[in-house]
Predict the structure.
Amino acid sequence: MARINVNPTRMEMRALKGRLKTAVRGHKLLKDKTDETIRRFMEFVRLNKKLRKEIESEVSAALRSFVAAGAASTPAEIAEAVGVPVKKLKLKSGEENIMSVRVPKIEIEEEENEEIFPYSFASTSSELDASVKSLRAVMVKLIKLAEVEKTCAMLADEIEKTRRRVNALEYVMIPDYEETIKYISMKLDENERANTIRLMKVKQMLDEGKN
Amino acid sequence: MPNDRVAVVGDKNAISAFKALGADVYGVKQASEAEGIIKKLARDYSVIFVTEDIARAEEELIARYKSRPYPAVIPIPTAAGSDGYGMAAIGKNVEKAIGSSIVLDEE
């Protein structure tokens, strides 16, 4: 590893030792953070997988029945039937903090009226009723999926970022500091020895001059 | 800020069912049209459901919204069933986070 280019002085060494201490502590903290984030992430991924599996079959089934219902009546009738919804789909979207990642928290806003069919039953087929009803049930799950999937993606991002930081500290910063500190302390020791020798030499010369 | 609404982007015939639920439906005929629509929707909507074929075509654009809490752009299957794109996306996330795509135990 590369040594940091500093003057080999006591002061520099002291500063470096402080930085090393911070780096080691930061490394430990970040490592703990990755571990916990991964644990949380795995929970979400499991849920995500389960939800997606359910949704994939349910949504396509609901859409298929809608297409089938469309075949039973004219496109204009269908468009008229579903064109104006009873109520706009409203969400409650907030944010949640998971391991200092701001993830979305989405819920469907509760509706007062239970009526889900935006049309009267006179002009439409029962297939359409069934498809709208199943789609309505699936929508709640879809919103949940949106929340979970987004959370997963963001946590994955965060884990990658944190891991990179941990590795940078572990394999670059900390070894660099250690090596530089070692270099400085060796250099200082060397100076010390040189100084002692110099003093001994001077004393010897003085003694020789006396005799 | 998100407007607490849901948009659905996809082939018009397949997704107009979502209209009945009160979601805003944006029909596109070709995947190439979707880019501008998604860009515009991303500014307001909380959740955007995109059919898998379009999500596949607009992967780059959708990846841009990954790091923000909103909008959540989520691929959904079409009437023809899923082509596995959504599942693959989950696998990709796992790979990114753990380093390898491990098979998750199913309960």
